[in-house]
Structures are given as structure tokens and as C-alpha cells.
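Justification of resources, computational component.

The compute hours requested in this renewal are based largely on the per-chain cost of generating structure records like the one below. Each record pairs the submitted sequence with a full C-alpha cell output. That output is archived, and it is also reused by downstream analysis tasks.
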Amino acid sequence: MKIFNLEIKVDIVKYRWYWFGISLALTVPGLIGIAMCLYEFHAPLKPGIDFTGGSILQYQFEKPLDLDQVRNVLEENGLPGSQVQKAFISGQEVIVMRTKAIDDESIKRKVDQSLESSFGTYKALSVDKVTATIGPELLQNGLLALIITLAMMIGYISWRYMFDYAFCAIVALFHDVIVLCGIYALMGLSMGTEVDSLFISAVLTVIGFSVHDTIVVFDRIRENAKYVGSKVKDKATGEERKRSFGDIANDSVNQTLTRSIYTSLTVVFTLAALAAFGGVTTRDFVMAMLIGVISGTYSSIFNASCLLVYWRELKQKQKLKAATA
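The structure output for this chain reads:
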């Protein structure tokens, strides 16, 4: 492959156990975080008000505030675990407070009085009560739709390629989803980061990106698979040998590596700009996309192809054992 006019060839298959080890290092802590969230929040991730319902208060104060102090005031008034963020509307700083549902008007008055006594007068821009828009039934239907989608993807990729291609593509996809959800589970435990309906959209987008990038690599492997068994001269020893499926996969990955990197960098630069300047309301969605795109690029290059080679080598060993027996 050529990157910035430099000819580079990476031996992906040779170091596959390193790539698998990096993936384990990324996924195992995430799985532990998901398990801890299940114990603490009874959900794989810390649910936001889209799932649990709550109140959103947007107040504009006369002076800049420390978010931790605002959070402490809310906790003292019976609203623990509230999410407090800064936003800017028409160049003015606004404090956005996401709390559990405030049904009692006396609690609302008590919170307002505490905020005013602690930070001075303010202007209430909006006070909204949010119901749980994603209920258990909708969540069940979503999971069912996801299972059906994965089954159809396996069927289609198996028909267009082979079953081992489909299996490795789905494993790479699950890797990306686990990495993304694992990071957000750890963020929920350590920083109180909540997930909402936008996060679900980000996960679905990452699934599509991951499969698309993996299929590009697999398509080149399928095209070059006809050269398996062809003779090639070993550069180290000068001896002729037959090209293995691992050699073909390695060459195919290198042929598509430049395209994958350039395409992913374009998306990463766009998402990074949105994360820096896009505002607080879309930041979690953009960060989820950013993590998913980077993970998807890594898995399609380093995991999916290496897993496919490993699968083929296991099948070849089984055939040799059967023939010997």
C-alpha cells in the first residue's frame, strides 16, 4: 500500500495474536463495566431520562458557575445523580440540569430557592418534564429487530461469499459494539455518563460502518483467493513455495489498507470537529460515533481477516487429520 507516497507493507497475519490481544485488552474491561452496570443500574449501561423519564431545567445565571457546586445543591435537595452541563444560547452561558422526575411542586420551589440563595438570581429559560420514550416493549422489539438483522446479514454474506466470511464479519461487528458499550459503561460508572436514544442511533450506525468496511476487505480476499497455491519466490531464502490463504489475505488487506485508512480519517476528522464545536447536546452521540468508527476500522483490518485465516487453517488441519486417519 502507499501512504503519503511511501510504499508500506504490513504483515497483518504474522502478528495476529498481537491484534487479538489488543482486542481482548479493549473488550474485557468493557465487559466487566457492563456487568457492574447490570448490578448497579439493572441495565448494561447507565440509562438516561429517555429510558427512565425525568426533568430538564435550563437556567441562565448572572455569573459563571461551577458545575460541581450546582450538582451538590441538587443532591442536597433530594435529586442525587443529576446530570449538570453547560450550554451556550445566543452567546450566553446556560446551565442544563437533567434530574429525575420532579412531580412535587414543593420540591421544585425548594430547588429554585436553594439555587437562588447559593448563586444569585437567574432566568428560567425552560422547565420540561420528559417521559420514558423507550419503554420495555419498544426495547424488546428493537432487540428482536437486531437479531433478525444479524441473521439476515449472516445469510446474505454466506450466500455472496461463504459462511466463514459471514461468521468472521459478525464477530468483528460484535467486537465494535462491545468496545463502544464497554467504554460507555465505564464512563457511566466513573463519570455518570448516561445513554439516550441518540446513543442507540450511534450504535446502529457503527454496526453499518463496521460491516461495510469488513466487506470491502473480504471482497478483495475473495477476488485474490484464486491465486492460493500459485508459486512465489521467498524473499528471505530465495526458494519457491506455494502461496497460502494467509499470504493471499495479507496481500488483500494491504491492497485495501490505504482506502480504509483514508476513508476512516475523513470520518474521524469530521466527528472530531463536531465533538469540539458541535455543542453539548450532540457531544455524546458524536463521541460514540468516533469510538465506533475507530474500533470498526481496527477490527475490519486486523481482526476480521486474521480470524478468517485462522478459521481456514483450522479447517485445513482437520482435513489433514481426517486424511491421515
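The chain has a mean pLDDT of 83. The chain has two domains: 2-42+135-324, 54-130.
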